[in-house]
């Protein structure tokens, strides 16, 4: 079956750096999957995710949506972003409107929804992410976890088939983390796919049905968590044996 989104041999080097941030990365995301992306700081997780909705463009290799090579013109990016939603690691990079309501509305309006439909989406997403009480607040005057929830609501309001969430759980309180996994699981039950980068190995082990381990800009291994976390050879190779779990 054709993957929803696939990266093929993607190479990317930030202009200011000598070493590649992605060095021939191939991954494919299907439908209805829970995928955890793990790896050390600087291993390339965020760079990979930025390629998933066209914020970064491969310098070599291709990104395919439903088997078709992504085109980086306006129409191509719109087509990609209709299907793939990305929550950035740092919500300050994501929120730019004056108010929370405006921010969450931006995506749906940009997709061409009329005001009433967009408002409905915003209200729904805000409730799901528990930010309804913040809708009239300015985005810059929120706590870190509130910003993350608003950023997530803005992406969910676009109803993506594939949700890419970069370290979203980190700044959330434990109650909101519970709510987050409920939200993510609900998306997967609807046939959508969630890719979550995380440093929480308990989450990778217990929540994901597929784990991608990155190292030095490469995909080191892709396997179900049961395999990764039980195979001594894999644990050694990924150095996960050095981590207390
Ligand atoms: N804007 C940038 N300009 C230059 N180099 C960058 C930039 N962003 C990331 N890098 C470099 O690219 C490499 C991959 O970084 P990336 O942010 O993808 O890692 P990561 O796995 O998401 O790390 P973390 O776990 O810390 O979030 C690192 O060497 C990093 O220093
Ligand atoms: Mg990162």
Describe the 3D structure.
With 245 residues, the chain is of the alpha/beta class. The chain has a single domain (5-242), classed as Rossmann fold, CATH 3.40.50.300. Helix content is 36%, strand content 23%. The protein has nine helices and ten strands. The chain has a six-stranded mixed beta sheet, sandwiched between helices. Strands 2-1-4-5 form a four-stranded antiparallel beta sheet, covered by helices on one side. Strand 9 and strand 10 (218-223) form a beta hairpin. The longest helix has 16 residues, at 174-189. The chain binds adenosine-5'-triphosphate and magnesium ion (MG). The site of adenosine-5'-triphosphate has 13 residues, from helix 1.
Q: How is the secondary structure organized here?
A:
Layout lengths: L4 E8 L9 E8 L4 E6 L5 H8 L7 E6 L2 E2 L4 H10 E4 L12 H11 L4 H14 L15 H13 L5 E5 L7 H16 L3 E5 L3 H6 L3 E6 L2 E6 L1 H4 L3 H6 L8
Parallel strand pairs: 3-8, 3-9, 6-7, 7-8
Antiparallel strand pairs: 1-2, 1-4, 4-5, 9-10
Helix pairs in contact: 3-4, 3-5, 4-5
This protein binds adenosine-5'-triphosphate and magnesium ion (MG).
Give me the number of helical elements: 9
* H-E string: EEEHEEHEHHHEHEHEEHH
CATH-level-2 architecture: 3-Layer(aba) Sandwich
Mean pLDDT: 96
Ligands bound, unique: adenosine-5'-triphosphate, magnesium ion
Poorly predicted sequence stretches spanning 5 or more consecutive residues: none
Spatial order of the strands forming the largest sheet: 6-7-8-3-9-10
Strand content: 15-25%
Look up the CATH topology. Rossmann fold
Major beta-sheet overview = 6 strands, mixed
Helix/strand-derived category reads alpha/beta
Compute the gyration radius: what is it? 18 Å
Compute the separation of the termini in Å: 35 Å
CATH superfamily: P-loop containing nucleotide triphosphate hydrolases
How many domains comprise the coordinates? 1
Outline type? globular
CATH level 1 name: Alpha Beta
Kindly state the percentage of residues in helix.
25-40%
Tell me the number of strands: 10
């Amino acid at each position: 079956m054709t993957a929803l989104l696939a990266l093929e041999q993607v190479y990317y080097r930030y202009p200011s750096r000598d070493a590649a941030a992605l060095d021939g990365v191939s991954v494919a995301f299907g439908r209805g999957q829970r995928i955890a992306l793990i790896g050390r700081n600087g291993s390339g997780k965020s760079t990979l995710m930025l390629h998933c909705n066209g914020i970064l463009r491969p310098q070599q290799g291709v990104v395919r949506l439903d088997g078709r090579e992504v085109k980086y013109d306006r129409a191509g990016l719109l087509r990609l972003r209709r299907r793939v939603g990305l929550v950035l690691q740092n919500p300050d990079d994501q929120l730019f409107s004056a108010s929370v309501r405006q921010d969450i509305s931006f995506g749906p309006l940009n997709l061409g929804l009329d005001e009433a439909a967009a408002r409905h989406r915003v209200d729904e997403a805000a409730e799901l992410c528990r930010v309804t009480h913040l809708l009239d607040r300015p985005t810059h005057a929120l706590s870190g976890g509130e910003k993350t929830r608003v950023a997530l609501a803005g992406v969910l309001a676009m109803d993506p088939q594939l949700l890419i969430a970069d370290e979203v759980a980190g700044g959330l309180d434990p109650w909101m983390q519970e709510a987050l996994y409920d939200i993510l699981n609900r998306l997967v039950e609807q046939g959508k796919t969630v890719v979550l980068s995380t440093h929480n190995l308990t989450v990778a082990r217990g929540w994901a049905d597929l784990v991608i381990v990155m190292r030095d800009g490469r995909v080191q291994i892709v396997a179900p968590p049961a395999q990764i976390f039980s195979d001594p050879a894999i644990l050694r190779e990924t150095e996960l044996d050095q981590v207390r779990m």
